[in-house]
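chain below, 209 aa
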Amino acid sequence: MTEEFHKPTKFPGRVFESFQGGIDPAETSRIAHETALALLARVRNDPDPGVIDRLVAYTEEHGIDAIAELWSRATPRSLPGALWRIYLLQLMIREDPHSASYLFTRGTEVMQTIDPVVAGAPIPAGPSEIVTLADQILRGLFEGDFAVALERAAAFCRVSASGAASVADDADAAEPVRSLDLTTRALRLSTLAHDLSGCARLWRQESLD
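prediction:
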């Protein structure tokens, strides 16, 4: 990464890449799975509102370094991989809620699916509503139906990807650089949606670990 950060570290909204390091991959995988399982079991077995509030607000207060070190290199279709992607999505929205709400709203205008309903955001959704949605989805991992939370996140990503692709088409002739950036964002959001949907299916099959 070329950017220089000061703590708390926050990724720009465009960044979806994992951290790289020299730790043994097997040990990294073991730590990722054990911490994800322990955290989820602890909170879901005793869903203390104060603990959940701190987990939802963690990246805003502390950045994403610690979470990245734990879960960013986990495989996409795994419990730590799912947690990492939800935290990353929440951070992306919080860092630029205006863009997030704009792309989501555009997506609701061009899509002909139930994804806007599944995501659960009001229509039209302003920046504050989108931030609230991101927090609700993250909270749902710890105190609601885990698979539903993943499906809501996946639906949000699909709607936003459609919005980004639509805006990219509009900007293609006059703003080719912006169009390329939006196309890349649409692709990353689509990939994120695909991974989260897969995790939701595995959770329902009791195979997400």
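Residues 1-21 have pLDDT under 50 and may be disordered. The first helix runs from residue 25 to 45.
thats it, cya
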